[in-house]
Amino acid sequence: MQMFQFLALFSVTTLLTPAIFAAAKDSHPNVLFIAIDDLRPALGCYGDPLAKSPRIDAFARTARQFNHAYVQQAVCGPSRTSILTGLLPDHTRVWHNRNKFRDTQPDHVTLPQLFKQHGYTTLALGKIFSGNEGELDPVSWSSPEILRKPGWSNYVLAENKGNGKKQSAAEMADVPDNAYPDGQLASLAIKTLTTLKQQKKPFFLATGFFKPHLPFSAPKKYWDMHDAASFDVPKEIRASITSMPNIALHTHRELGGYKDVAKDENVNAEQRLHLRHGYYACVSYIDQQVGRLLDALQQLDLDRNTIVVLCGDHGFTLGEQNRWCKATNFELDTRVPLFIRTPWIPQKGVVTDALVELVDLYPTLTDLAGIKPPDNLDGKSFLHVLNDPSASGRHAVLSQFNRPWESTTPEVMGYSIRTSSKRYTRWIDWQTRKVLSEELYDYSSKTSSREFSGNRFEQENIAQTKPEELQTMSEHMDNMFTRRLGGTVHP
């Protein structure tokens, strides 16, 4: 009998994941959460030949890299709200940067708030919930959030200062890293880590870098890392998507608001190269700041008990498909880089193609920390993928975007599901639920999609030419609505 009990115990313990063993040894790992504004997978480790990102590439070799991570809505406020609440936009009713989740979910416990309730010091530096002071969430943090410090400015050149927020769309100045906010933010985060170590208490430190968000301002040395001529985009890549409904495109001209860009965002070849160069220079600038922060984590001997999460809050488009910025349901806007490193993660540096959503981060981090999450989360843990990168994730991921963007309440909503090979998008009238238009894209097709700079994206809507595939994906979305949104979505 004793031998049987021993064998049974042995068989169970050998099946336990490394994360469970780690939790048993130390159930209070620290969390360093790094959010990067507007970062698409423009990194060397994602196969982008234009990227110069040695620090994040090195970090990727110590972490789990997710090749297919997607946001719930491709714009800052709604995306960050879904990450930090673990809820879908329709359940928080945050579809716009000015919506506030506490208006509809006043008692919901956010991810950092839950860690605070379990004895953690929770701090936010930079852009975490929002870039707007009115949309911060004090109850989530042990101390007031530090969104920005006095004097932090997007511009340092005299011609761009003092005349409003949107001056040049890009700035190159021969200045040190700390001349721009992200360099100062990295220094502040490093100083904060030092203080947290002295407190000898578990912490959840969120650090939100501002670039590569417009304007593309970075020290000259990061521009100099790149060959300006390499940023040209072939004509076929700049072509608009064939048979695409007009509603699929946003009308909000984020880029067109800058003084040196036409209101309709119709840029010439020289401007296109300069803007793309500026985006990648900002990525290189942020790459160095992330490296500084991770170096400090190691030098303080905190890396051995700290979970590190690094992600973009949504993707970005740089002239491909004849458009700029984000705010659509397309691949370039919804797909983001995501890395998670734990001190006990097996098979370091192994990538996974599992489909995951950023709303899944909340339950995944609570699983890693051994904390029970709220029962009402829309995300689901992908701890099993961290432990086995060959494991399956979601069968399909969900994104959405409302129209018009200028309205805080939707008139039309576009829901989009992405499987391993296809994307189906349905645009509906928000009040009547009438289907207005549909889109279908096949990423395995060389006509429906194209590949450029490590990204595969849509080029032809095949909804009208592939009726059987359209029906299959439409039924898939209906089933997802039932499971995740409680049936037919109501205003």
Description:
With 491 residues, this protein is α/β, with parallel strands linked by helices. 29% of the residues lie in helices and 20% in strands. It contains 13 helices and 17 strands. The protein has helices at 2-15, 18-25, 54-60, 76-85, 89-92, 111-117, 181-199, 220-223, 269-299, 331-334, 361-369, 383-387, 467-484; strands at 30-36, 64-70, 121-126, 170-173, 203-209, 216-219, 306-312, 317-318, 324-325, 335-341, 351-357, 397-403, 412-418, 422-429, 435-442, 449-452, 455-458. The strands form five sheets. The protein has a seven-stranded mixed β-sheet with strand order 3-5-1-7-10-2-11, sandwiched between helices. A hairpin with a 2-residue loop joins strand 16 and strand 17 (455-458). Helix 3 (54-60) packs across helix 9 (269-299) and helix 7 (181-199) runs parallel beside helix 9 (269-299). It is globular, with a radius of gyration of 22 Å.
What is the residue-mean pLDDT, rounded to a whole number? 92
Structural class: alpha/beta
Number of helical stretches of at least 4 residues: 13
Major sheet description: 7 strands, mixed
* Percentage of residues assigned to helices: 25-40%
What is the CA-atom radius of gyration, in angstroms?
22 Å
- Through-space gap between termini: 61 Å
Could you give the order of the helices and strands?
A: HHEHEHHHEEHEEHHEEEHEEHHEEEEEEH
Strand content: 15-25%
The shape is globular
As residue ranges, the low-confidence spans are 1-25
Looking at how many chains there are and whether they match, the oligomeric state comes to single chain
**Strands ordered across the widest β-sheet:** 3-5-1-7-10-2-11
Total strands: 17
